[in-house]
């Protein structure tokens, strides 16, 4: 009985390991990898930036950055599926666990568009600031970079 279970499970495990080793066609370019690593080196998850990043600029002294996506981007943010737009160029100031002076990310909520002005890390949560108003979401929802909708439709 135990033997037949192993024979059943073994091909299954093999199948899983094969399918996970298939390269992801949506893998970000090396450019976007470095922009995303700026996020992680300051305590932020990569999912705050879409996969497609054309170039970025960071002043290591002041933390001021500018991210060039190449084109405006529309996407859906987890976990509540808020519609968000990213301008072609995102600017702000990043320091450990805090992004301020943010410009270029807008979220649709309560029938209006809101510009996200800052993002903070608070324990396991991300705190999004819209002026004086804040909204808290578990950071684990942002472990993966979303793909821009509209521009290039990926088939998957
Ligand atoms: C980086 O920021 C510092 C401090 O604000 C400033 O003095 C410096 O000129 C900036 N460097 C560049 C290349 O903009």
From TrEMBL:
<dbReference type="InterPro" id="IPR007493">
    <property type="entry name" value="DUF538"/>
</dbReference>
<dbReference type="InterPro" id="IPR036758">
    <property type="entry name" value="At5g01610-like"/>
</dbReference>
<keyword id="KW-0732">Signal</keyword>
<dbReference type="Pfam" id="PF04398">
    <property type="entry name" value="DUF538"/>
</dbReference>
<feature type="signal peptide">
    <location>
        <begin position="1"/>
        <end position="21"/>
    </location>
</feature>
<protein>
    <recommendedName>
        <fullName>DUF538 domain-containing protein</fullName>
    </recommendedName>
</protein>
